[in-house]
């Protein structure tokens, strides 16, 4: 599974959404679509990613480059839209955790080591994500899937930097507990 | 590597959006840009009319009151004129199969701001409901009677075939083996419909001249825009027996 690709980076200062919005679309549509698809599903992402750019276009006069860049602004809009699908998202994480566990129990004939461990990690993380408070999950997934920095997450969600840190600490603790024995980080530290 | 990096790697990746999806989103954005340009031109025009109207407010008060009584009050927005240019029309004919599923029922309609009702009895929970609209970015409303009320869903469709979110219902219990009666409405992309975000912040049926899209407001929207010659189709696909 690949790292989140931050997508083409717009040269901030060279252009703005006030001038040519199609460039904003070209630079970030695929990235926003991917973020939504990983949290929900591809079909819903088709609609919500388009909605994200429509909303951004309608609100473009409110975009203030002094308060942050375009990427976090778009991620913030997408995350707001995702809040209307909270139940579906939780259902997805739960299904992912069950599916991965079921795969693991298929039998000993498959590759046992690395792939199995990776599946177990995915299952446990998905289960933990389902159990996180929505506000904590947003922070974790903007960092983990969106590849945003702490400051960008703060700008995207319109919350102070310190709040991002406290939500992240709380979420990290839960993720670590969920990983338990399957925690590859633990192996690294122990080794 | 910390938990967040691990998470980024562990969550399954998704394929990039198809060219059709990108084209449809771009078309919706382009339509919004055109609408926005039109609104700005109209607003520039209304500035002088407002100045004029303010000066004549007292003189026209009686006339305005009469107009309000006749037309049903100031809450009734003015009708929206259809676009004058008619682009070439993509085919919306439903194919016989869709992702390995067989065609169960379909209807093709010549105009938007219209509805059709389909009755079908799926045998599987993998039912797909595919809407194809010649006008990219058309609004879709699907509704089915459910527990003394209506189960409704809205979405967007284009010519390449957009699976309306309504088919998520097929994964709910009690879907297969019973007859469904689902009504589908399709409205053109410039219909006065609140976006998801606008609907979230608007607690009323009508905000800024745009309606919350549901069965109760569908007729009012039709009343404002009228039927448009924009073919669309709806097809229900089900797993083979």
What does this structure look like?
The complex is a heterodimer of chains A (about 190) and B (about 240). Chain A is mainly alpha-helical and about 190 residues long. Helices cover about 70% and strands about 0% of the residues of chain A. Chain A is built from nine helices and no strands. Chain A has helices at about 20-40, 40-60, 70-80, 85-105, 115-130, 135-145, 150-155, 160-180, 185-190. In chain A, helix 1 packs across helix 3 (about 70-80), helix 4 packs antiparallel against helix 5 and helix 5 (about 115-130) crosses helix 8 (about 160-180). Chain A is globular, with a radius of gyration of 18 Å. The model of chain A is unreliable at about 1-15 and about 185-190 (pLDDT under 50). Chain B is an alpha+beta fold. Chain B is about 30% helix and about 25% strand. A five-stranded antiparallel β-sheet of chain B has the order 1-2-11-4-7, with no helix packed on it. Chain B has a four-stranded antiparallel β-sheet with strand order 3-8-5-6, with helices on one face. Chain B has a two-stranded antiparallel sheet with strand order 9-10. In chain B, a hairpin with a 2-residue loop joins strand 1 (about 95-100) and strand 2 (about 100-110). The longest helix of chain B is centred in the first third of the chain and has 37 residues, at about 20-55. The radius of gyration of chain B is 22 Å and the shape is globular. Mean pLDDT of chain B is about 75; it is low at about 45-75 and about 85. Chains A and B meet through helix 1, helix 2, helix 3, helix 5 and helix 6 of A and helix 1, helix 2, strand 7 and helix 4 of B.
């Amino acid at each position: 599974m690949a790292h989140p690709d931050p997508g083409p980076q717009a040269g901030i200062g060279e252009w703005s959404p006030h001038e040519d919005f199609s460039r904003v679309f070209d630079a970030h549509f695929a990235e926003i679509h991917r973020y939504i698809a990983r949290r929900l599903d591809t079909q819903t992402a088709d609609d919500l990613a388009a909605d994200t750019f429509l909303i951004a276009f309608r609100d473009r006069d409110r975009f203030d480059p002094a308060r942050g860049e375009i990427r976090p602004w778009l991620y913030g809009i997408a995350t707001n839209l995702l809040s209307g699908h909270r139940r579906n998202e939780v259902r997805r994480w739960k299904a992912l955790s069950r599916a991965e566990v079921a795969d693991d129990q298929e039998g000993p004939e498959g590759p046992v080591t690395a792939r199995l461990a990776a599946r177990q990690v995915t299952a446990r993380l998905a289960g933990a994500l389902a159990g996180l408070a929505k506000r904590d999950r947003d922070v974790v997934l903007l960092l983990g899937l969106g590849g945003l920095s702490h400051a960008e997450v703060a700008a995207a969600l319109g919350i102070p930097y310190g709040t991002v840190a406290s939500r992240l600490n709380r979420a990290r603790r839960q993720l670590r507990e969920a990983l338990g024995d399957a925690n590859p980080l633990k192996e690294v530290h122990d080794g | 590597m910390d938990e967040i990096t691990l998470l980024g790697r562990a969550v399954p990746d998704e394929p990039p959006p198809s060219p059709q999806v990108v084209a449809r989103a771009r078309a919706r954005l382009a339509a919004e840009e055109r609408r926005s340009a039109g609104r700005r031109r109209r607003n520039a025009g209304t500035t002088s009319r407002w100045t004029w109207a303010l000066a004549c407010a007292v003189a026209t008060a009686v006339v305005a009151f009469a107009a309000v009584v006749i037309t049903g009050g100031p809450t009734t927005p003015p009708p929206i004129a259809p676009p004058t240019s008619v682009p070439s029309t993509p085919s919306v004919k439903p194919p016989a199969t869709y992702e390995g599923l067989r065609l169960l029922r379909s209807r093709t309609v010549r105009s938007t701001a219209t509805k059709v009702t389909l009755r079908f009895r799926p045998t599987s929970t993998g039912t797909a409901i595919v809407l194809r609209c010649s006008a990219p970015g058309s609004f879709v409303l699907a509704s089915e009677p459910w527990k003394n009320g209506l189960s409704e869903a809205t979405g967007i469709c284009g010519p390449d075939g957009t699976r309306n979110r309504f088919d998520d219902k097929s994964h709910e219990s009690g879907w297969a083996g019973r007859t469904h009666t689902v009504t589908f409405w399709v409205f053109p992309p410039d219909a006065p419909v609140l976006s998801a975000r606008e609907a979230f912040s608007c607690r009323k049926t009508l905000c800024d001249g745009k309606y919350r899209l549901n069965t109760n407001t569908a007729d009012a929207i039709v009343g404002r825009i009228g039927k448009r010659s924009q073919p669309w189709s709806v097809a229900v696909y089900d797993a083979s027996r």
